[in-house]
Automatic annotation (TrEMBL):
Residues 149-366 form the Histidine kinase domain. The keyword Transferase applies. This is histidine kinase. It comes from the Bacteria. The lineage of its organism: Bacteria, Pseudomonadati, Pseudomonadota, Alphaproteobacteria, Acetobacterales. It is an enzyme of class 2 (transferase).
């Protein structure tokens, strides 16, 4: 029985809230392990941490989720041996079913159950990913300024250079004509690069109610008829997911970039891409200079079974001109991060060998938005 969420709360004494209800409401993962390290209870945050419901956790032990050499087992044993609280930090929980880094753990004995341990877990990697994503907003402003400078200072003289090369080509020798064509081709290539950089400019975007499943269906059809026609695309959608608040065209562009990256990363033979949606309690981020916090409970994921992203690349994954592709310009994921930030959303990457997941967390439409036919039908 899940003592945190399944037991009916008793009337509180002295006006204090019931402790079980409080633990269930905590955003921090809390579990109870019995003397055999089997899960006896888990609050909703713990279910999300392990990506398993309590019904699934109740049938397994901690050793099925955490490697046997993990320091977490040493912490649990120390709690039992000393009959006192023990804490540890910067733990890595890495197994086929779980991948968490930078985890802080706190264990304490449970007197009502001999040998039982109450375990609190905090995922530091989540905070680090969110910090990097929020920091990118500042970097995006720098990219915007650079884009405006490039557009103004480069495109005009570039047109003059190309025009001069065309004039020279008319009266040039065969060898010189080849050089003139080369100048024109390079001028075109630079112009295309500058035009792509212009997309980083700080232009206000229009947002509205968007059916994310229609967006994903559109992206899947483009991918399956083109660059991913040789791959298996799996859909795992939550049909009850409400509409998101965003820009439909930009969401299509974001998802196309993510799916195309996944298609280029997987093996042409046996490669798979999974598109999924789910509702999570999500994250709440503070808006600088405001007391308002934005709730991002709607999650869209793109998962592939490719080789994963090198750890040294992940730290700069969202920055312009960072790429591991031959001939790549490194603007795809930088553009994704810019478009995500412009819509008040967040994106994170979880990658290891054989599995890479990009998770996009999106807001719901404002509560005071007038009901449209689409929102009323939901």
């Amino acid at each position: 029985m899940n003592i945190f969420t399944r037991r009916k709360p008793q009337p509180p004494e002295s006006g204090l809230p019931d402790s079980i209800a409080v633990i269930s409401a905590l955003p921090v993962p809390v579990v109870v392990l019995d003397a055999q390290n089997r899960f006896r209870s888990a609050n909703p945050a713990a279910e999300q941490f392990f990506q398993l419901s309590f019904g699934s956790l109740a049938h397994i032990g901690l050793e099925e989720l955490v490697p046997p050499d993990s320091r977490l087992f040493a912490l649990v044993d120390q709690v039992r041996n000393q009959d006192a609280p023990v804490s540890d930090h910067d733990l890595t929980l890495d197994s086929p079913r779980l991948h968490r880094t930078g985890v802080a753990a706190h264990g304490a004995p449970l007197p009502e159950m001999p040998g039982a341990v109450v375990l609190t877990l905090q995922d530091g990697s989540k905070a680090q990913k969110l910090d990097r994503q929020l920091n990118f907003r500042g970097a995006a402003r720098g990219a915007s300024a650079m884009a405006q400078m490039l557009a103004h200072e480069v495109k005009n003289p570039l047109s003059g250079i190309r025009g001069a090369a065309q004039l020279l080509e008319q009266n040039a020798s065969e060898d010189d004509r080849e050089l003139c064509v080369l100048i024109q081709d390079e001028a075109d290539r630079i112009r295309d690069l500058v035009e792509r950089m212009e997309m980083f400019s700080d232009r206000p975007i229009e947002q509205g109610v968007v059916n994310i499943h229609e967006v994903l269906d559109h992206v899947r059809r483009i991918a399956s008829r083109g660059f991913a026609s040789h791959l298996r695309i799996i859909e795992d959608y939550d049909p009850s997911l409400p509409s998101v608040w965003g820009n439909r065209d930009f969401l299509i562009q974001i998802m196309l970039n993510l799916v195309k990256n996944a298609a280029e990363a997987v093996d042409p033979q046996g490669g798979e891409i999974q598109l999924s949606t789910a509702y999570h309690h999500g994250v709440r981020i503070a808006i600088p200079g405001s007391r308002e916090r934005v709730h991002l409970p709607l999650q869209v994921s793109v998962r592939d079974n490719g080789p994963g992203i090198d750890e040294d690349v992940r730290a700069t994954l969202w920055e312009p001109f960072v790429t591991t592709k031959r001939g790549g310009q490194g603007l795809g994921l930088a553009m994704v991060a810019k478009l995500v930030a412009d819509q008040g959303a967040l994106i994170e990457c979880d990658s290891r060998s054989g599995r890479t997941i990009f998770r996009l967390s999106l807001p719901m439409p404002p509560a005071d938005l007038p009901a449209s036919p689409e929102t009323r039908s939901e």
